[in-house]
Fold these 3 entries.
Entry 1:
Amino acid sequence: MQLNKILPQIIADNKLHAKWLNTLSLMENTGARKISASENPVTVTYIILKHAAEEHRHAFYLKKQLEKTGEGLCPTYAGEYLLAPAYSKYYLNQLDINVCRYLKKELKLTGSELRFAAYLLVTYAIEVRADELYPIYQDALDNAGSKVNVKSIILEEEGHLEEMINQLQKFSPEWQLHAQKAVDMETGLFENWVKALADSLALQQ
Ligand SMILES: [Fe+2]
Ligand SMILES: [Fe+2]
């Protein structure tokens, strides 16, 4: 099941579309909170602060877009207002767990070093995904003539991927090898997420 197959079905139904936007907002918020939690209170940089601020803005912006689908829809992140709620919450946490496990085993990292390296790899994999997902979503929005738009998110996500690559290059000469591992882990989790989304749509028919 591919995302571009299920998105038209979601966009065509305001209630489903609201839940989809709310689900993306939840995932952006989870990512933003993870970045903030991994910050070192002393050595945190301009780039990390900018990144955290922008991910928090994405969560807010998606919540704001949701108003275009109807009044009073999806006021919170409670399960009834999300698509595939369990899996949507699981996706990012599990990626974080898998990447930490890899870093402990392969690079023997612990403590703040582990936290920083996990931030780099998890965020890199998510930025690769965001650069694919949001343009597919925007295309589906354009095709449906929807008022919702995510163009400002697409612009910022492109910047994030570049920033992550810059930080990874400083982290390790072998960054590409580690980054690819994170992307592989993310791909499996993402495919299961899309499957869970398709199942949750079938249930809501
Ligand atoms: Fe984002
Ligand atoms: Fe991002």
Entry 2:
Amino acid sequence: MNSLLLTGGRVVDPANAIDAIADVLLLDGKISAVGKDLPAPAEVERFDVRGKIVAPGLIDLHTHLREPGQTAKECIATGTAAAARGGFTSIVCMPNTSPAIDNAGTVALIHERAKTEGVVNVFVTGAISKGIAGEELAPIGGLKKAGVIAITDDGHCVQNNDLMRRACEYAKMFGLPVMDHCQDYSLVTDGVMHEGYWNVALGLRGWPAAGEEMIVARNILLAELTGAKIHCQHLSAAGSVALIREAKKRGVSISGEACPHHFTLTDAAVAGSEKFWSGDGQDLHAAGGAQPASLPAWPAYDTNFKMNPPLRSAADREAILAGLADGTIEILCSDHAPHCDYEKEVEFDYAPFGITGLETELALSLMQLVHTRRLSLVDFVAKYTVNPARLLNLNKGTLTVGADADVTVFDPGQTWVFERAASASKSRNSPFFGWQLQGRAVATIVGGKRVYF
Ligand SMILES: [Zn+2]
């Protein structure tokens, strides 16, 4: 059952510098061959994928599965189902569950649950600090032994620079990258949206770009000091991109990721759809070539436009796109952060930060990067496959013969509307319901088995 012959697709495998029309043979859960007119045993099912892209299974290295402890929002079964629907064969879950993933027992629990309930591969990150409280180091060696692939306090940010330095030193000893949610608490205080024109107009407290840039700068200095690999999560600000670009030129072991909401939307969206479409959203759909019949509408103060870090200015959005185009930002991800309706249906100030993203990120990223010709398809696929695999030392993200048969087949041109009722996630906190999107997963194959098609 774990065998399949994919015929006639455009195979895009950046790890092996392949971009060609070819067949891909999956046998017993492994990649068996890639080439023209491949012979296959008679019993192997053939799957015609002409006109589609055949890529290594996509990896999302930033998701919140909410299990254990917050399963009203999401659980491993629903989170991995949403991943499969979005075209992802591997996802990495963040440790801000309850209890937090700061001990070997919780890591083992998630591995066990993922094996029995998950439909895609789940990789686990451990906390930097005990209880993600930023005060004492978590047992990093024990977490590594239990199988975590990185450490992060995501959702929170270690403010004590000495503690962060020690975390980096331990992580380096254990060969783990350190991922960081960059937020300086003393600058951000209780900000709920980007500090600029719109937060003043709307009467909401500001979250300044410098609150992110300060910690990105700190991380660059600590990467130089300790030699650890530091990865800055969900970059939103132009200054962060400039800092990382300059540091990478000097060979510093720093990297970054970006999420589609930050390079599609801006803070104007918090003022409602009219303000957004008549301003920063003007050429969003035209650029992709897919003109929807009517533009989606939403009111001002819609809490599905509240996330951390917040949506920023049009200039920041442009800088993130430029950083993705020139390779400064090597990785794309969702920061899939489900919340219950009743939690989001409150005043903007009181709503939790975060939106779902696994089912829309492939389309939104294609629209903003490939359909606009900012990025080639090969470079685009790399940001979802070989680049995250390299950062996290995962044996994934490639169609090399002998590798696990994780494959994503997608149609970059397919237009579709993201319907609220059709989401596989347990939560509905997406700003993109009703949007006409272009690009969609056609089949998600994990270990040679189709888990979504
Ligand atoms: Zn975060």
Entry 3:
Amino acid sequence: MKLSPKVDRLGTETAFKVLAQAQALEAKGVDVVHLEIGEPDFDTPRNICDAGIKAINDGYTHYCSSQGIPALRAEVAKEMERTRGISVSPDRIIITPGAKPIIFYSILALLDEGDEAIYTNPLFPIYESMINFSGATAVPIPLREELDFRFDIDELRSKITPRTKLMILNSPQNPTGGVLEESDIRSIAEIAQEYDLTVFADEVYEYILYEGNHYSIASLPGMLDRTILLSGFSKTYAMTGWRMGYAVMPPQLVDPVVRMITNSVSCTAPFIQYAGIEAITGPQDSVHRMVEEFKKRRDLIVEGLNKIKGVSCRLPKGAFYVFPNVKEVGMECKELANYLLSEAGVATLAGTDFGEYGEGYLRLSYATSQDNIKKALERINTALSKVLG
Ligand SMILES: Cc1ncc(COP(=O)(O)O)c(C=O)c1O
């Protein structure tokens, strides 16, 4: 069988590979601490589960609108008004099975050979993978540790060419936990308008923020019509397995993306969308409790990592990842991640799993208990002292 050459351009998400490797070790009896996978370890709140079960019992088990049920889209529109002061019609809101499909569909709908897309590097790997798959050129802009993993705005300007069509932002960020400042976002908005760029604003970690308020580029004048604003339920409500996300779209993209949904998955399961309505409109205290606990874990892991010889770690402002600098250990980060898994039973990801500028770093997810974090820190310390003496 001769496959299309384009499948070679489709990358992947290493977290799932490392999870499988770690599980294979566990099947052999090895005790592994999981710091690789990026999902809240909390249960989906009871009220949301009950709403989903009720919707199944009420018969919401058939096909529904490809774009998403009107009742959920109306609630997302209200959420946009509440959280960002954005007034948007539910006609511009699209619900998908997870946030990820919005990345897949919008990039395919927008980019072609000859186009360029600027994306921060390191970044959630699906972006680079999809830009490459579309045939466009992926133009990385390095995140700088000394800028708390933000990027230099002049460097952004220097990457723009007449072919630049899309700029991808993610704040709070995966894998670094970095958060863009309001001044960064204002400058990016000016640049986007000056050069007529579309902005993809991935805001799936909007609620997992430890200081200040979330700031969305879509709320700036003139930006809503050129921004694909992505958010969802996976991280905020610990609903990764339910598969549901949403986007606010520029008007021209709504119909093509909805057609892609119809051509691929038809729709997002309606009973899950009813659970989504409960997530948005119901009590939010479980979200606040989860974020408070993440903050304690963040402090614990950053303090612990900074005590380990060869490791230094900044205090991230959002998401549930740390991105420690491990350059002094003197191994390539991929080799180091493999060593920590096989030698210490700690599953982590290499910074380069998120792009070339991730070399010299590891990504650790602290979406696990404080006891597991302490165990991982001890094990990493022991394993690295064998390397560094
Ligand atoms: C930055 C970012 N965007 C999107 C997603 C995808 O989320 P979902 O599970 O809702 O598809 C993730 C998941 O890790 C992510 O880190």
